[in-house]
């Protein structure tokens, strides 16, 4: 069997923030009525996390739930377990009007950390990333320059960014430029 | 810069996150309608200087469609509301009346 490799194979850049392409991340798109008990239970069972409210992420390490829209949640599981978790979830969903699909290999994941992480992301997304407006656990779907992306803030103030695998190189280059030494804006 | 509150995800999205979907509350005339009705359905649009109703999609966001009521002259936004309705809800119409007494738009006022 061929060996799966993440989009940029762990590329890293150190500037005013540290940009890391994280390795493979299991991701399941789950669509349905998020208020429905069966669906919330199936999602919780796969991740040991409760269903997050709007624009929130409940993530520990590489397991968690991210609120994508009123009828969509992104389920994060360890990459090696994604097929098992998906099968378990489909079984748990039973006859619920819901859809779960493994999208792991369609995505890339980055981490942006360091004192200027907020600034680096704020240069690329039309989102208020000031301390009071965006906090750990907050999740946002938006764009990074010209491509769709989603991110949430971790407990230590770092950002975890998800984008399509096909634009991983573009996003990495964007983040690198935004994190160039000497490019601090000093407002966040 | 136009900023619309997305009623689906709660984000105050600026226009580069949004996709404009044209005029709101257009009634479809399809099979069984006459040529004039079909022509009007396809081509005739309001072009007001003032109160206007539009469809927008939070494309770079939650992906959902919604409605917005705004003023084309000042860019003032009176409110946004869910897509699943064929007419502006009362609270939106009241908000417009408070700012633009006597407004009329198609059959709404
Ligand atoms: Zn939205």
From TrEMBL, chain A:
<dbReference type="Pfam" id="PF04268">
    <property type="entry name" value="SoxG"/>
</dbReference>
<dbReference type="InterPro" id="IPR027266">
    <property type="entry name" value="TrmE/GcvT-like"/>
</dbReference>
<protein>
    <submittedName>
        <fullName>Sarcosine oxidase subunit gamma</fullName>
    </submittedName>
</protein>
<dbReference type="InterPro" id="IPR007375">
    <property type="entry name" value="SoxG"/>
</dbReference>
From TrEMBL, chain B:
<dbReference type="Pfam" id="PF04267">
    <property type="entry name" value="SoxD"/>
</dbReference>
<dbReference type="InterPro" id="IPR038561">
    <property type="entry name" value="SoxD_sf"/>
</dbReference>
<protein>
    <submittedName>
        <fullName>Sarcosine oxidase subunit delta</fullName>
    </submittedName>
</protein>
<dbReference type="InterPro" id="IPR006279">
    <property type="entry name" value="SoxD"/>
</dbReference>
